[in-house]
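Hi C.,

You asked whether I'd gotten around to modeling the 219-residue construct. I have! Everything is below, sequence then structure, no commentary in between.
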Amino acid sequence: MTAEAGAKLRISEIFHSIQGESSRAGLPTVFVRLTGCPLRCTWCDTEYAFAGGEAMSTAQVLDRVAAFGCPVVCVTGGEPLAQKSCHELLVALCDGGYSVSLETSGALDVCGVDARVSRIVDLKAPDSGECDKNRWENLACLNPRDELKIVLASEADYLWAKKSALAARRLDEICPVLFSPVAGKLDPAQLAEWILRDRLPVRFQLQMHKLLWSEPRGR
């Protein structure tokens, strides 16, 4: 048995849906959601993935993914990199010919992720309660294929993102930057107006899957 076949993962869910975020928004995608996260963001919408799940080998995950017949895969969480075997899973998916993205909190080291994977890295704004967990060293290993996402819950979050993150660290020179409002906290139209007013070099995004479906699990 290969290392990839034997690697054990704790899986919250595997499902086929429409990608609702990032530059891949709108693409049919297989999502592999890993269990566990070291952060507790105030607005987290996947708290059910903090614990539980099913123990699976990498080979079992690959079989489940293959059953959907979809070439695009997103590994997400929770925080997928909190499980050491996540790296083996990413390599195995890439070796299998899939177009792979990784959604990560940005609190853990992303520099060792397989170069074939598109990394979607969160930066936590103050209202998340986890702003001090941002691992700024990750910026040095990102490239134009990756993306930075900042979820905003207030005007204070927006000002932080504009000044302390985007401008101070020249994020848009590294890779695409996405600003996303927290549902029920920040009016999307207001965020759009701020972006236009300040002529920011960012992409505005809504969570498309939440516009389509109200049930968060499996979507």
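If it helps when you're writing up: The two ends are 33 Å apart (CA to CA).

Thanks,
B.
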